[in-house]
Specification:
Number of helices of chain A: 11
Order of helices and strands of chain A: HHHHHHHHHHEEH
Structural class of chain B: mainly alpha
Radius of gyration of chain A: 21 Å
Largest sheet of chain A: 2 strands, antiparallel
Structural class of chain A: mainly alpha
Largest interface: A-B, 25 and 23 residues
Radius of gyration of chain B: 14 Å
Shape of chain B: elongated
Order of helices and strands of chain B: HH
Distance between the termini of chain A: 48 Å
Number of strands of chain A: 2
Number of helices of chain B: 2
Strand content of chain B: under 5%
Oligomer: heterodimer
Distance between the termini of chain B: 9 Å
Number of strands of chain B: 0
């Protein structure tokens, strides 16, 4: 019985799953989803980089946002539903982390946006995008976050093909994956790379 | 020759990134998207051309 827990048995994905998340014929659809998501991130991040009190005013906009969401109103529901998350924001607020965290958010959004648009490390960029969406939603901000979060999760699942019409078309075969070295690290692969 | 071709591909994709930031600066949420989409497809076509040239030359 206990040996079944540690049984070496690979479970395969169904055909529809492999078609949806691993077939290059759907690359044009992934291109649309990827560039749309990237464009949303880039616009949001570029606005913060260029002004709006994020990095040009010691993160005062972020400080104002954090101050607002940690409040618990007399009536109605607070913006943050989880006490541990409110404590986390309050901790950052007390230590004035908004001064440098505003830079992280602004340039993080721009980086995720550009990476998704050009399709470089799409799965990784989508993961960091989803992480930001997740945090914004925990902070009580809906906006476009639910839609972008779902698209990001789909792109994480389809990381092999989501950047096919993009830099990943050359980047992934060159670098490979942690479990399969790419052309740059494998002599045999290097001979076949150009084809 | 190979370096030149690879450089062409790198410049094409760097151009897409620059254009995307330019479009964000232009601040047109809807119309800024389409030039980016066309530029991505164009850069991909350039990349395919570069790959084919390198492959055919056997470099």
């Amino acid at each position: 019985m206990i040996d079944r827990l540690f049984e070496r048995r690979e479970l395969h994905d169904p055909n529809w799953f492999r078609f949806l998340f691993g077939n290059a014929v759907l690359a044009p659809l992934w291109l649309l989803a990827r560039t749309y998501t990237g464009w949303q991130w880039l616009q949001s991040g570029w606005g913060k980089v260029r002004g709006d009190g994020w990095i040009d005013n010691d993160g005062v906009s972020l400080q104002t946002f954090w101050n607002r969401i940690v409040q618990i109103p007399e009536t109605g529901q607070p913006a943050i539903r989880y006490d541990w998350y409110r404590d986390f924001i309050q901790y950052m607020l007390d230590h004035e982390w908004y001064e440098w965290f505003a830079w992280v958010i602004a340039f993080g959004e721009v980086s995720v946006g550009v990476a998704l648009i050009i399709g470089a490390f799409t799965g990784v960029a989508a993961f960091f995008g989803a992480t930001m969406n997740f945090n914004f939603m925990l902070a009580g901000s809906a906006s476009t976050n639910p839609v972008l979060f779902v698209l990001a999760v789909l792109m994480i699942l389809g990381w092999k093909v989501a950047g096919y019409i993009g830099v990943d078309r050359w980047l992934l075969p060159a670098l490979g994956t942690p479990w399969e070295p790419g052309a740059l690290f494998s002599p045999r692969e290097r001979r076949e790379y150009a084809t | 020759m190979r370096v030149g071709l690879v450089l062409l591909g790198v410049i094409a994709w760097a151009g897409v990134a620059a254009l995307a930031i330019g479009m964000a600066e232009w601040d047109e949420p809807v119309w800024g998207y389409f030039p980016i989409l066309i530029a991505v497809i164009a850069a991909w076509a350039i990349g395919e051309f570069v790959s084919r040239e390198i492959s055919e030359r056997g470099e």
